[in-house]
């Protein structure tokens, strides 16, 4: 009788363990990152440097091997993320977070903000997001919030309606899909 109860308890524990482990399988995401729009906010900030509009965009991301983010030391000469290509042209992979402001015109269309110098932009770099993987390829999912400051009135004018186009790259230079944020109005 005691043997039967022990056998039944052991079987129950084994089946429970198998059920729990099957629930903990790694997600199967593509190795190319994908993003979706989550939120956008803006606030007017005044500090010792002046008055500016701080815009924070949050995207949700998924990546199958978790190779998202760069460190500044990754951007050394000769790396795929160096500032300049061997022919001394700007490397498009120097940044991994790409943002383009889209301004609504009088006709209601959103057009890319034109900057005086085409090399000026709001692109930037986000740090590695796979800090706990110890170099292992691990699927990642989460939210990435990024803040950009625009000096008040230049180039975004008070009262203008703007939205942003965003995409990211992973360390293998795979480009995510492009998302467009909800519109916001620049404070007056």
Automatic annotation (TrEMBL):
Top-level taxon of origin: Bacteria
UniProt signal peptide: 1-21
Protein's UniProt name: Lipoprotein
Alphabetically ordered keywords of this record: Signal
Origin species: Hymenobacter qilianensis
């Amino acid at each position: 009788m005691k043997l039967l109860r022990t056998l039944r308890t052991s079987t129950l524990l084994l089946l429970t363990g198998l059920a729990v482990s099957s629930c903990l399988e790694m997600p199967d995401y593509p190795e190319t990152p994908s993003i979706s729009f989550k939120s956008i906010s803006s606030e007017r900030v005044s500090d010792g440097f002046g008055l500016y509009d701080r815009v924070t965009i949050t995207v949700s991301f998924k990546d199958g091997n978790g190779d998202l983010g760069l460190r500044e030391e990754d951007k050394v000469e000769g790396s795929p993320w160096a500032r300049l290509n061997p022919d001394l042209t700007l490397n498009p992979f120097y940044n991994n977070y790409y943002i383009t402001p889209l301004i609504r015109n009088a006709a209601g269309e959103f057009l890319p903000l034109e900057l005086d110098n085409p090399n000026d932009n709001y692109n930037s770099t986000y740090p590695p997001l796979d800090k706990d993987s110890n170099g292992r390829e691990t699927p990642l999912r989460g939210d990435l919030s990024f803040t950009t400051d625009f000096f008040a009135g230049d180039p975004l004018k008070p009262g203008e309606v703007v939205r942003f186009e965003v995409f990211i790259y992973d360390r293998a230079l795979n480009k995510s899909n492009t998302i467009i944020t909800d519109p916001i109005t620049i404070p007056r």
